[in-house]
Amino acid sequence: MLKVLALLTLLASTAVHAQTPLHTDLPLKYLEQANPESVNQPLVIFLHGYGSNEQDLFGIKDELPAQYNFLSVRAPIVMEEGSYQWFRQKGKGAYNGETDDLKASGQVLLDFVAQAAKKYHTVPNKVFLVGFSQGAIMSYEVALRHPEAVGGIAALSGRILPVLKSELKPDEKRQKLAIFIGHGTADKRLPFNDGTEADSLLQSLSLKPEFHAYPGVGHSISATEMQDLSAWLQRLNP
Q: Which of 84, 114, 192, 231 is the most buried (most CB within 10 A)?
């Protein structure tokens, strides 16, 4: 199970999580820390990794700009109680996804983003996906295929899947996307070169990702990465 390690960024207690209601009014179930009456505030949507759930990334909201609205969504494919995934792995070897799963999850996530933007009174260019591992892969899937849907993404310990890479062509619509890439150099689940290759590919498409390497960090989110992510999000809404 690819769950984010408990660090400074994940201090929210089980009791706090238990008190946070699970919302079911949008296409995906989600947790919320938001003021539905706020207007044009950035909306940050967390996408968890393989085998995890909506609680896994919810705690990092406390390290990010307090005035933003935050949602943490549950992936649609059930593995077992409390364990979910965005897509099943395609065969063995490199971490690739089943095409049908990617299409289905990509569409429901796209619908979720559009409806959430309306509910929380913001515009697409102020919606930011923050994904870890498989959630980072889904962030790339949605943003690069539908750049009009979001303002940007933070891909933490993720990769751009070959099926998406093969279909990407230069597109002016993508150039407005703000992209943060963070990857630990000691990651053994999704190797560091997955992050550097995504960075190179995006640059070749005339995008300008902000790339951060974290020496000695494995498949997890470090306190330094949270500081960098918070600063990045803050710059997007000065």
A: 84
Per-residue pLDDT averaged across 81-103, rounded?
86
Single-letter code of the amino acid located at 45? I
* Percent of all residues in the chain with a pLDDT value above 70, rounded to a whole number: 91
SS (H, E, C) 97-140: ECHHHHHHHHHHHHHHHHHHHHHCCCCHHHEEEEEECHHHHHHH
Q: Residue 204: helix, strand or coil by DSSP?
A: helix
Nearest-angstrom CA–CA distance, 195 and 91: 22
- Among left, alpha and beta (phi > 0; psi -120 to 50; other), residue 62 is alpha
pLDDT value of position 3:
44
**CB-based contact 72:34 (threshold 8 Å):** no
- With bands split at pLDDT 50, 70 and 90, how would you rate the model's confidence at 180? very high
Contact 140, 109 (CB under 8 A): no
Q: Report how far residue 71's alpha carbon sits from residue 58's, in angstroms, rounded to the nearest whole number.
A: 8
Structure tokens given for 127: 């919606």
Question: Looking up tokens 């593995």, which residue turns up?
Answer: 79
Comparing CA positions, the residue from 162, 215, 206 lying closest to residue 184 is: 215
Average pLDDT over residues 9-30: 70
Predicted pLDDT at 55: 97
